[in-house]
Design brief:
Elements: H1 3-19, H2 24-29, H3 47-74, H4 80-107, H5 116-122, H6 133-158, H7 163-188
Helix pairs in contact: 3-4, 3-5, 3-6, 4-7, 6-7
Bound molecules: fe (ii) ion (FE2) (2 copies).
One fe (ii) ion binds near residues 61, 94, 97 and 176.
Length: about 190
């Protein structure tokens, strides 16, 4: 066997023996701290950071619900019925996002923060009281684009530290991209 083939074989072997082995100590540790439920001792030092990120996303979703509700009920003009309906659909989808984030925060042993006086300070996107349809559409598009950017960054930050949270964030990101796309169509078509 030549040395190149030897090295390749050795690399494959160490991959099999080293990198793809389960961590037995972490498996054993999962027998302890049963009160933590889904969070095992090897979860890593990221729990507080991830809960904080999720809580800020929760605040953003709740502010988005309020903004879309305001717009749904105050939209008027020729194109208003269709657009007002779209605002309501988005409001309900943002509320569903908020629910999923809150449930995950609790699963991670955290406290979901619904305190009204802290919401706008922690939200990434703004509340809006634009009086006209164009202003509403623009404010919502800006908020959705901020949400898209926020979730994309969170997906990267969470990475493989917590695959379940990452999948949740990816799901929500896909919805926010659809929202932004729909609003851009309404605003510019
Ligand atoms: Fe959302
Ligand atoms: Fe959205």
């Amino acid at each position: 066997m030549n040395s190149q083939a030897d090295r390749t074989l050795h690399a494959l072997k160490s991959q099999r023996e080293g990198r793809l082995e389960l961590d037995q100590r972490a498996l054993d540790a999962a027998r302890e701290q049963l009160g933590d439920g889904a969070v095992t001792p090897a979860y890593g030092p990221w729990r507080d950071d991830i809960v904080r990120l999720l809580n800020d996303a929760l605040a953003t979703e709740l502010v988005c619900v309020l903004r879309y509700k305001r717009h749904h009920f105050t939209a008027h003009g020729l194109a208003a019925p269709r657009i007002a309906e779209e605002f309501l659909v988005h409001a309900n989808e943002e509320a569903a996002h908020a629910d999923r984030l809150a449930a995950r925060i609790v699963q991670l042993g955290g406290e979901p923060d619904f305190a009204p006086d802290r919401l706008s300070a922690r939200s990434h996107a703004d509340y809006d009281e634009s009086p006209d349809l164009k202003g509403m559409l623009r404010a919502n598009l800006v908020a959705e684009r901020i949400a898209v950017e926020g979730y994309r960054q969170m997906v990267r930050l969470v990475g493989d530290k917590d695959p379940t949270t990452r999948r949740l964030l990816e799901d929500i990101l896909r919805d926010e991209e659809e929202h932004a796309d729909e609003l851009a169509d309404l605003l510019f078509d």
